[in-house]
Write a structure and sequence with these properties.
The chain has one domain. The chain is 71% helix and 0% strand. The protein has four helices and no strands. α1 packs antiparallel against α2, α1 packs antiparallel against α4 and α2 runs antiparallel to α3. 21% of the residues are buried.
Length: 106
């Protein structure tokens, strides 16, 4: 799910804000982040070795902060720091989830 958010965010930030697909992706990114948050909360409650809420919050801020949903948002290159930051937090979250599984189910 985190990887899906990353793909959608890459596409979103490299499209013009007035593009119809961009508007659709805004809604999808917010919805997928909400779904991921619900899963992260359940996982942390059930398995104390999963400590990913902080990283999830960083991913959410990276994906939907700044000029997200702005009509004046610039079209970004794939190498832009906004996209790199989303990639970073996505990979951090995936790494922490994998570590949590490894500690819980050795």
């Amino acid at each position: 799910m985190a990887a899906e958010i990353l793909v959608k965010a890459r596409t979103y930030y490299t499209k013009d804000p007035s593009d119809a697909e961009s508007l659709k992706l805004e809604r999808e990114i917010k919805f997928e982040l909400y779904r991921l948050a619900q899963r992260v909360e359940r996982l942390e409650k059930a398995c104390p070795k999963f400590e990913v809420q902080g990283t999830w919050s960083e991913l959410q801020d990276a994906a939907t902060g700044g000029d997200f949903e702005s009509a004046t948002r610039p079209v970004r290159a794939h190498s832009d720091s906004v996209i790199s930051n989303i990639e970073h937090w996505t990979h951090q979250l995936i790494d922490q989830l994998e570590a949590g599984f490894a500690l819980t189910y050795p």
